Each structure stands twice: as structure tokens, then as C-alpha cells.
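Researcher: Go.
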Amino acid sequence: MKALRRLASIERELLIALVLLAAALFAFFKIASEVSEGDTMAIDRAILTGLRSASDPAVPIGPHWLPEAMTDLTALGGATVLWLVCAAFVAYLLLSRKAGTALFVFAATAGGTSLGVLLKLVYARPRPDLVPHIVEVTTTSFPSGHATDSALVYLTLAALLSRNIRSPILRLYMIGVAILLTLLIGVSRVYLGVHWPSDVVAGWAIGGAWALGCSLVYSRLRIRQAESAS
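Model: Structure:
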């Protein structure tokens, strides 16, 4: 009986994840279409210029410590930090004798980051030159790699970790922290002047979609295991 209830719970989670996945994919392709047609440029420009001093576009708005704080936040979405986090989590899973889950996490991270690189090559949108960049960048702009990669890594890890937590409040807290961190990283890219806002929103959408897709695959694997156990 417990196994049946557990299967029903997982099926509900799958349905919710599937609906959110469809919404995220729709959002990404909608934004990509509007970016290609130039429909987002007006709001992109308004937000970027609104985050800089009216008298000097090289000076960001806010207190003197905010640019440094944003630079620190943006580093949390960089490849080095994300791969260190992923490596630490994979090592933990291996030490816990969960080699299958460790392989799944590695494959999900590698696949997601590779997708982000491919999308940058496909769309090849230039970086904004409306305001001076506060940090150095070299790649193309759409979608934001920091927004995409932080969403797919932090949300995927939070989803997997929360499955081992019984308390609904603690599960929501863990996923909420991952979402907040992802949002802050994306906002930092716009504040630093290295991305158009539409780049970041699209990155959140495709990164979230990837994380949801991974959650669906992982849940299906768990259903098979539960069915085998019953």
C-alpha cells in the first residue's frame, strides 16, 4: 500500500514538472523569436540605461559597495564555481555509494552546459555596447550562460537533494534558495552591463527547462525502481 501511495505522489510530481517544463520551453522560444525580430530592444535598452548614472553611463546606480557585491554574485554562476559545486556533489554521491545518481548528475550538468554553448553559437547575439562592461566577457550574448548554467546546476541539485528530505517546508526552503541564487546571478549580469535583460530571462527559461527535464527523467527512474520493489 505504501508503494502505491508513493507511486501516486511521484506521478503528481511528474505532471507538475511536465507542465512547468512546457511553460519554460515556450517562454524561451518566445523570447528567442522576439529577440531575433528586435522586439525586445526597447525594454532591454531602458533597463540597461536605467541601471547607470544619468550623467555618466560608466557609473552604476546604488551604493558604492553594490558593484563589488554584484561581481561576487556573478562569480557564483561562472563555470569554475559551478563545476566545483558539481564535483563536490558527485564526490559526495560516490562516497555514499550512489554511483548511478552521481553519473546522472554529471551527465545532466555536462549536457546542460553544452546546450548553452550551442545556443550561443546558434543565435550569435552581440554583447550590449550601450554601457561600459564592469567585468570582462568574450562570448556571445544570447542566452546568458551564467543564467542558464546556474539555473540548470543549482535547481537540479536542489531538486535531487530535496527528494531525501521529508519535511515539505525544508524541501521548499532548499528549492527556494536555489531559485533565489539563480535570480541574483542573472540580475548581476544585467547590472554589470554584460547582458541584455532578455538574454538573462531566456537563460533562466532554458536552464529551468533543463532542470525540470532532468527531474522528470530521474523521477521515471525512481518509479521503475519502486515498481520493481513492489
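Model: The helical segments are 2-37, 41-50, 66-75, 79-95, 99-123, 145-162, 168-191, 197-229.
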